[in-house]
Design goal:
alpha+beta, single chain, Alpha_rhamnosid, Bac_rhamnosid6H, four-stranded mixed sheet, EC 3.2.1.40, alpha-L-rhamnosidase
Length: 516
């Protein structure tokens, strides 16, 4: 059976409007009935109108046959794209036997304003003094006189705050909280809407202003290096919120700042390497190593004990690889002691939670991680669930049976992601779905479930760019059974609990079983 093509995406979206990327990335999903199918080549066509594409004419870009298994993030490489223009594309592929597929369905995208001169609209609003008091929202109207028949109507909209757009009394979209949160002083997102159907006899195109960001990551790293002293950011320059909403466990802001300084510098080395900037990569690697060495001297003793050690302090230090061995192993033991001292309750705040369970698991303390996960009394995830939560709270004690709502009413969200970062651990460790750093984006998948916590059944699926990844396991009669589904054009390494070796598989559905 040959490959079938589905779900064409441009910049992660289906037929998006208003792109400002001059080289948009094209992706497609593949389907097949047989196992271990792969794409070996592709051909892309991009045209200025549907009729040309139907005739297999790519007047903007005909890639020709490209020998490659790449099916996501293929960068457009045709003629220059123009502001406001619409483009149409399709693709065909060849499978592992060099059998060609049919052409895919047609998809499209449009470009937004690409040049500063394209932005002509001016800000509208009311001149009112700033106040923290709640007030009714402003209702701003503009009458349009349409004198000619409408071929197409596009509107670009944004606001310095939340907006809803109506035309002729009808709401343009169901988007809430548009335009999306940014630092308004530096960057403002905008939305592009197709609104032709909102006009009977015609329309005018509305545009809004957009700011671009001046804050570059490399410049920021230079700033951090500039304020550091002997490869450490001094306490006097650590003006941050710390481990926000931790429970009776204040972590040193100086430790937090320098942990992230080391981690960010290491990430910069990896980014530079991927981009082929080896000189920069080498510089950042050497700098990251110096920061780690300074961190270990300042905050840890040879026995792995951290100054003012909290769950967050140990979790950040371990997950970011800031200590050499054997100090790191000893620090992991200290983290377990810290968890036991809190009677298997979390005390970490916003910064520590994403790293806490992974740090325990990576150093062999999966049972302790499950003890924290399955805890039912305050503070814990299950305390929120047993208290009626259907979304993650901002505070561990946002509501309690004894006190009711937390007294800080204006900072007590009941739909707040931060503590929900545990969801990553559920996927990566409990279900065992993970990426391979050498083949990112789930091109090569790691499946390594870690059972525990008294659980006997787990099902997880993840919608990757290549397709649905499934890891489902159950324990029955002392046997561990695992079912996995791997998308077309990817491969996976499966490692069962307690096994030292991995099994390499291709796409398809597989079942494994071992005795625990």
């Amino acid at each position: 059976m040959t490959l079938n093509i589905s779900r064409l995406l441009t910049e992660y979206a289906d037929a998006p409007l208003g792109l400002d990327n001059r080289r948009p990335r094209l992706s497609w999903r593949l389907e097949a009935e047989e196992r271990e199918q792969l794409q070996t080549a592709y051909r892309l066509l991009v045209a200025t109108c549907p009729n040309k594409l139907e005739r297999d004419e790519g007047d903007m870009w005909d890639s020709g046959r490209i020998e490659s298994d790449q099916s996501i993030h293929v960068q457009y490489a045709g003629s220059p794209l123009e502001s406001g223009a619409h483009y149409y594309w399709k693709v065909r592929v060849w499978d592992k036997r060099d059998v060609p597929s049919e052409w895919s369905r047609m998809s499209s995208w449009s470009m937004g304003p690409l040049n500063q001169a394209d932005w002509q609209a001016k800000w509208i609003g009311m001149d009112v003094p700033h106040s923290d008091d709640y007030r009714s929202v402003a209702y701003l109207r503009k009458a349009l006189v349409i004198r000619k028949p409408v071929k197409r109507a596009i509107v670009h909209a944004t606001a310095l705050g939340i907006y809803r757009l109506f035309i002729g009394g009808r709401r343009v979209s169901d988007h809430e909280f548009a335009p999306g949160w940014t630092d308004y002083k530096k960057r403002i997102q905008y939305q592009t809407y197709e609104v032709t159907s909102h006009f009977g006899s015609g329309a005018q195109k509305a545009k809004v202003r957009k700011f671009t960001s001046l804050a570059l990551l490399v410049s920021y790293m230079g700033y951090l290096e500039g304020i550091s002293e002997r490869d450490m950011i001094p306490e006097s320059r650590t003006g941050n919120y710390g481990d926000w909403l931790s429970i009776h466990a204040d972590t040193s802001k100086e430790l937090i700042s320098n942990a992230f300084y080391a981690h960010s510098t290491g990430l910069m080395a990896r980014i530079a390497s991927v981009l082929g900037r080896e000189e920069d990569a080498s510089k950042f690697r050497e700098q990251a190593q110096r920061i780690k060495e300074a961190f270990a001297v300042k905050f840890a003793d040879p026995g792995g004990r951290l100054k003012g050690g909290t769950q967050t302090a140990y979790a950040l230090t371990l997950s970011m690889g800031l200590l050499p061995e054997p100090a790191a192993r000893l620090a992991a033991c200290r983290l377990v002691e810290e968890v036991k001292a809190s009677d298997n309750h979390v005390t970490a705040g916003f910064l520590g939670i994403p790293h806490l369970l992974p740090a325990l698991s990576d150093y062999g303390y999966i049972d302790t991680a499950y003890d924290l996960l399955m805890q039912e009394s305050f503070p814990s995830w299950f305390h929120q669930i047993k208290s009626g939560a259907t979304t993650m709270w901002e505070r561990w004690d946002g509501w309690s049976k004894e006190r009711g709502f937390h007294p800080v009413e204006r900072m007590n969200s009941f739909n707040h992601y931060a503590f929900g970062a545990v969801g990553e651990w559920l996927y990566r460790y409990m279900a065992g779905i993970d990426t391979d750093l050498l083949q990112p984006g789930f091109k090569h998948i790691r499946i390594a479930p870690r059972p525990g916590g008294g659980l006997t059944r787990v099902y997880a699926e993840y919608e990757s760019m290549y397709g649905t990844i499934v890891s489902a396991w159950e324990i029955q009669d002392g046997r561990f059974r695992l079912q996995v589904r791997i998308p077309i054009n990817t491969t996976a390494a499966v490692q069962l609990p307690g096994a030292e070796t991995k099994v390499e598989i291709g796409s398809g559905t597989y079942a494994f079983e071992i005795r625990l």
